[in-house]
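Continuing from the previous page of notes. For each protein in this section, the sequence appears first, followed by its structure tokens. Read the first protein now.
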Amino acid sequence: MTERATFGGGCFWCVEAAFKELDGVREVTSGYAGGHTEDPSYRAVCSGATGHAEVVQVEYDPDAITYEELLEVFFTIHDPTQLNRQGPDVGTQYRSIVLYHDDEQRELAESYVEALDEEGGYDDDVVTEVEPLETFHPAEEEHQDYFEKNPNDAYCSMHAQPKVEKVRERFREKVRA
């Protein structure tokens, strides 16, 4: 059985690379969601005019990794208190967003965000949006597996690699062998 989860937390290259490390994750596809343009392109999304966020859609085996564990990874690899940005990437296309596929995912994501705020582990409030997934648009081929194809890219070295290392360290028992 395969289920899907969709997350946006900054540049999709970085988020994709981190999720691909996990056992039970069958596929990660970079794309766009949460906007109002029918056929968004990378250039259009980067302009901020489409309303879309850069997101990843994660196909996973729920017997090997749970949605709750995916949420934990997601909230570990990005700063959910940064409004419309992650690191050097600024704009609504880089917002923190969980796009749920069903009511169970919505409830779990909303509870997770509430718990983060109640724990008070951040100086600022969590600004992650929790919205229904309307349509997922896969990104152009050159954006798929970007970190894997471009490991020496300076952006990837500075931003994707630390996320991958964080997953390998913090979720050691869930990383692919």
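Done with the first. The second protein uses the same format. Note its length before scrolling.
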Amino acid sequence: MNIDRIDRQLVTLIAERGGFVAQAATFKTSTEDVKAPKRVEAVISKLRAYALQEQADPDTVEAIWRTMIANFTKAEIKDFAETR
């Protein structure tokens, strides 16, 4: 089924993104660097533009990414704390 195939691809990509987030924790010097609110807003802005280009609902894309970013940030803060 196409939806199942896409779901699997999305999970694979989320896992890959999570790996890069974990790597990024090693380069940060503070939890504020991890949170990076200006970076988050830049990412959201870029993704909303991508959504429009792909004829996806930008509000849905934003909501998904904000949830994903919040969870990755939480994990990155934990990783950051463990490495310091």
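What the second structure shows: The first helix runs from residue 2 to 25. Helices lie at 2-25, 31-35, 37-53, 58-83. We return to this in next week's lecture.
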